[in-house]
Amino acid sequence: MNTKIGFIGLGIMGKPMSKNLIKAGHSLVVYDISAQPVEELLEAGAKRAGSPKEVAQQCDVIITMLPDSPQVEEVILGSNGVLEGITPGSVIIDMSSIAPSVSQKVAAQAQAKGVDMLDAPVSGGEIGAINAELAIMVGGRQETFDRYVGILRTMGKSVVRIGDIGTGNIAKVANQIIVAINIAAVGEAFILAKKAGVDPELLFQAIRGGLAGSKVMETKIQNIKDDQYKPGFKIKLHQKDIKNAMQTAAELNVPLPVTSLVQQMIGGLVNNGKGEMDHSAIVTFVKDMAQEGARI
After folding, report:
1. Are 36 and 24 a contacting pair, CB within 8 Å?
2. Which residues are registered as beta bridge partners of 135?
3. What are 171-230's pLDDT values in tens digits?
């Protein structure tokens, strides 16, 4: 079914996600503060809007893919925002990775205008977005999920409803805790082995099929071995996700001691100018401390 969809936020993830919606036959109205990705989407067949409000005026399904909680609040709740132009009965699908409590706040204000909302953050990075193989974690009403799950499946290979609004982002912060700690653990293990004279490729082959094997290691090992960190998911964005995890943990009185340690590592990397690098560069924190060479 061809649906007219508004898409706001055409960054590393949003641009390929929106292109996959067009490939699936949907009509898109797009908005971004940067001109270049908008022009690229126009060439692919999308139409341009001048503000989030204009997007909402033209579409009954509005998808947002934005950096963090403040941008989501500004785009949806702010001046010239989505709620100023939206029609009752429409739906907002926020695919940004934000604080769960902010998802609940935004959804409550949308509901007051007769608009339903799903929080549907993703995992899989740029490659997953390009290949429409994202894992999509969804919070919201079952009825709303059932109605729009087909649109989400256009962008992801795994689409799972977790529970009510906000639980999508609970799943996302849990995901990001595991990923960050896993990258740090892979870095420590391979640097230790390299210092001991073990070939990293042979180590990888030896452990990948056992309990230590993981999708994180499979996906990121080449970056780590080559010491090349072109961003598929930037360290500064992972820093934001871990911040949201720690904020949520504080709200729920849950101690996260290992996550807290990795948060400090990521903060140090950002302070050292590495925030634009791929999050696999978390391993460079250990490499620098061990005074290891350029490549593992």
Report:
1. no
2. 123, 158
3. 999 999 999 999 999 999 999 999 999 999 999 999 999 999 999 999 999 999 999 999
Q: What is the pTM of this model?
A: 0.91
Candidate list 172, 240, 274, 287, residue with the active-site label: 172
Token match 């590495």: residue? 274
19-30 pLDDT tens trace: 999 999 999 999
Segments in the chain forming alpha helices (H): 14-23, 35-44, 52-58, 69-77, 82-85, 100-112, 125-130, 142-153, 167-195, 200-207, 215-226, 235-252, 257-271, 283-290
Fold exhibited by the domain 4-165? Rossmann fold (3.40.50)
**172 is an active site residue:** yes
Instruction: Place domain 170-290 in its CATH homologous superfamily.
Output: N-(1-d-carboxylethyl)-l-norvaline Dehydrogenase; domain 2 (1.10.1040.10)
